[in-house]
Write a structure and sequence with these properties.
By secondary structure, this protein is an alpha+beta fold. It has helices spanning 3-13, 16-27, 35-42, 46-58, 77-88; strands at residues 33-34, 62-67, 70-75.
Length: 91
């Protein structure tokens, strides 16, 4: 990972709703969850969830998978592993 990717990832996760979304998706890795189920479990309105999922996707932390009219989101666990490795490489 480069510095820009690390900053984008940390910025995306430095918000309570996005962190909760990501943590929920990690519990269901590798398949993830449909957007509607994420919304129900976290009690989020659709537009709010969509905004936060777009931020996480732009940072490379989640990946959308279109299935007809539904979109399933899965965590990119390797991205978080790369982030953790970057943060601890000099320890």
């Amino acid at each position: 990972m480069n510095i820009s990717q690390v900053v984008d990832s940390l910025a995306a996760l430095a918000q309570e709703t996005r962190l909760n979304i990501f943590r929920l998706l990690v519990r269901y890795a590798p398949l993830g969850l449909p957007a509607g189920r994420i919304a129900r479990q976290l009690r989020l309105p659709g537009p709010t969830l969509s905004f936060h999922l777009n931020v996480l996707a732009a940072a490379g932390l989640v990946e959308p998978h279109k299935n007809g009219r539904s979109i399933r989101y899965s965590p990119r666990v390797n991205a978080v592993s790369g982030l953790a490795g970057f943060l601890t490489e000099n320890c």
